[in-house]
C-alpha cells in the first residue's frame, strides 16, 4: 500500500450515507447508515474500503493511521449554494429590516444586490480573490469539502467574467472541490432598469454576450436565475435557462424564495438540477418537483437572517418524495454565515427534519444538487475521499451544539482540506 493511503481508526461513529449513488427521496433520507467499530481506508483520492478494522488491516499495510480518538467521521459536507465572491459586508441592511423595511424594498431603493454590484465593480480580481479565499477556508473549517460558488454581483460582461475567473483561481488554489455557477441573472442592473427597453436589453446581454464566452471558456458548470416577482419573471427565466442549457450548462434556480410565482414548476419543466429556497413554494410546485428529478435545496439560514418565521415546507417536500438538500446560501445580504453545522441545527429545529435526514441532505443530496452524486457524498468504496472528523462522540451532537462547529479536520479527494487538530497530521 502506497504512502498516500490513510486508515481512519477509533471513530466512535462513522456516518457513511452509503447507498444508491443518486439523490435520496422520501424514507431513503431517513437512514444515514450509522456504523460503530468501523474503520475507513483511503487510497489516493478514493475510498477503498469501509468496515471492521480487522477486515481492513491486511489491505491497509503501510497506510498512515489517523486516530479519530473517539470522534465522529462523516462524509465532507457539500455546500451546494453560496455567493462567496463579494466585496464589503452589508450590515446596515440588517437593522433596516428590523425597523420594518422589507428585503425587496431595500432592493427597490438601490440597496441589496445593487449595493454589492456597485462595490464589486470597483474591485480587481486579486482583491476579490484575497477576500474570498479566507471565506472558503472558513467554510472548510466547518466540514465543507465541496462548495458551489456563484457569480452574480457583476451583472456586466466584464464583471461577471472577472468573478468567474476568481472562482476558477480559487478552485486551482484551495484543497476543496469548487463548482462554479453563472448567476448573471441575479438582478436587472440599475442602469438597465432605468431604460424603457432595459429588461429586453439585459436579457440580450445575458444570452448573446455573456453566455457564449462563459460556455466557450468553460467558466461555469451551471446557470442560475433569481426567478421571483420583481426580479426575473418565469418567462424570462425560461428564456435565459433554455439558452444556457443549449450552450451546455446545467440549470439551478433561485425559486419561490419570498413569493410563490411558479418558479418551482419551471425548475421541474426545465429538468433543473436543483430548485433552491422554496420558502414560498405552492402545492402545485411541490407536486411538479415530486414528479421530476430536481433536488430541492433548502436554505433555512436565509429565512433566519431575514427574520422570517415561514420556512420552506421541508416535511411536505420529503413526504411528497422530493429529494431535499441543505446549504448555507452564504452571501452578504441574506445569509452571512459559513457555519454549515448551524444549518443542520436549523434543519432539525425549524424544518423538523431528523438528524439522519439533515445528514443525507448535507452529503448525498448536496452532491446530487451539483450533479456529482455518482462519486461524491458517501463513505463507500469508489467514492471520492471527502471526510470530516468531528469533535463529538455522537452524531446527534452536530445539530445540538448549535453555532459550535467542532470540525477537527477534513479531507477532500484524500488530501487535507482543513486541519484544526495538528496532531492529526503527524500521527501515524
Ligand atoms: O439567495 N435571492 C437572491 N440572492 C441571494 C441574496 C443576495 C443578496 O441579497 O445579496 C439569496 O438570498
Ligand atoms: Fe442564493
Describe it for me?
It is built from 18 helices and 18 strands. The chain is of the alpha/beta class and about 425 residues long. Helix content is about 35%, strand content about 20%. The longest helix is centred in the middle third of the chain and has 19 residues. The strands form 3 sheets. It has an 8-stranded parallel beta sheet with strand order 8-9-10-11-12-13-14-15. It has a 6-stranded mixed beta sheet with strand order 3-2-7-16-17-18, covered by helices on one side. It folds into 2 domains: about 120 residues, Urease, subunit C, domain 1, CATH 2.30.40; about 290 residues, Alpha-Beta Barrel (TIM Barrel), CATH 3.20.20.140. The chain binds N-(iminomethyl)-L-glutamic acid (NIG) and fe (iii) ion. N-(iminomethyl)-L-glutamic acid binds next to helix 4.
Q: Low-confidence parts, pLDDT < 50 over ≥5 residues? A: none
> Count the helices. How many?
18
CATH architect. name of the largest domain: Alpha-Beta Barrel
Q: What's the overall geometry?
A: globular
Provide a quick synopsis of the model.
With 428 residues, the chain is of the alpha/beta class. The chain has helices spanning 53-56, 92-98, 103-108, 113-121, 125-141, 157-173, 190-193, 198-216, 234-246, 263-269, 283-290, 300-306, 314-319, 340-349, 355-362, 364-368, 397-400, 423-426; strands spanning 5-9, 13-15, 34-35, 39-43, 46-51, 64-67, 72-75, 77-79, 144-150, 177-185, 222-227, 250-255, 274-277, 295-298, 324-326, 387-390, 407-412, 415-419.
Amino acid at each position: 500500500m502506497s504512502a498516500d493511503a490513510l486508515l481512519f481508526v477509533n471513530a466512535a461513529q462513522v456516518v457513511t450515507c452509503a447507498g444508491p449513488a443518486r439523490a435520496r427521496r422520501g424514507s431513503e433520507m431517513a437512514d444515514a447508515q450509522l456504523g460503530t467499530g468501523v474503520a475507513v481506508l483511503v487510497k489516493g483520492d478514493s475510498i477503498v474500503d469501509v468496515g471492521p478494522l480487522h477486515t481492513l488491516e491486511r489491505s491497509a499495510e503501510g497506510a498512515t493511521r489517523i486516530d479519530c480518538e473517539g470522534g465522529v467521521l462523516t462524509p465532507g459536507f457539500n455546500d451546494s449554494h453560496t455567493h462567496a465572491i463579494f466585496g464589503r459586508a452589508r450590515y446596515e441592511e440588517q437593522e433596516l429590516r428590523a425597523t420594518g423595511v422589507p428585503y425587496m424594498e431595500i432592493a427597490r431603493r438601490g440597496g441589496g444586490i445593487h449595493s454589492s454590484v456597485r462595490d464589486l465593480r470597483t474591485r480587481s480580481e486579486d482583491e476579490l480573490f484575497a477576500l474570498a479565499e479566507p471565506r472558503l477556508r472558513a467554510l472548510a473549517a466547518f466540514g465543507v469539502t465541496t462548495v458551489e460558488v456563484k457569480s452574480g454581483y457583476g451583472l456586466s460582461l466584464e464583471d461577471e467574467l472577472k468573478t468567474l475567473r476568481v472562482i476558477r483561481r480559487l478552485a486551482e488554489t484551495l484543497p476543496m472541490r469548487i463548482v462554479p455557477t453563472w448567476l448573471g441573472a441575479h438582478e436587472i442592473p440599475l442602469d438597465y432598469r432605468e431604460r424603457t427597453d432595459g429588461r429586453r436589453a439585459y436579457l440580450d446581454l445575458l444570452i448573446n454576450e455573456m453566455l457564449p464566452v462563459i460556455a466557450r471558456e468553460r467558466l461555469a458548470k451551471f446557470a442560475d436565475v433569481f426567478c421571483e416577482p420583481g426580479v426575473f419573471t418565469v418567462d424570462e427565466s425560461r428564456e435565459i435557462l433554455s439558452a444556457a442549457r443549449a450552450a451546455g450548462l446545467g440549470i439551478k434556480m433561485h425559486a419561490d424564495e419570498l413569493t410563490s410565482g411558479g418558479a418551482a414548476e419551471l425548475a421541474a419543466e426545465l429538468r433543473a438540477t436543483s430548485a433552491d429556497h422554496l420558502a414560498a413554494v405552492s402545492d402545485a410546485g411541490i407536486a411538479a418537483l415530486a414528479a421530476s428529478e430536481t433536488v430541492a435545496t433548502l436554505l433555512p439560514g436565509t429565512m433566519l437572517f431575514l427574520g422570517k418565521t415561514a420556512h420552506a415546507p421541508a416535511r411536505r417536500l420529503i413526504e411528497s418524495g422530493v429529494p431535499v438538500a441543505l446549504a448555507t446560501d452564504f452571501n452578504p445580504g441574506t445569509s452571512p454565515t459559513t457555519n454549515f453545522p448551524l444549518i443542520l441545527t436549523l434543519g432539525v429545529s425549524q424544518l423538523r427534519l431528523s438528524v439522519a435526514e439533515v445528514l443525507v441532505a448535507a452529503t448525498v443530496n448536496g452532491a446530487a444538487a451539483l450533479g456529482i452524486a455518482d462519486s461524491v457524498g458517501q463513505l463507500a468504496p469508489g467514492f471520492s475521499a471527502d471526510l470530516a472528523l468531528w469533535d463529538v462522540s455522537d452524531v446527534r451532537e452536530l445539530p445540538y451544539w448549535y453555532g459550535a462547529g467542532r470540525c477537527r479536520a477534513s479531507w477532500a479527494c484524500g488530501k487535507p482540506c482543513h486541519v484544526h487538530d495538528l496532531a492529526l497530521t503527524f500521527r501515524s
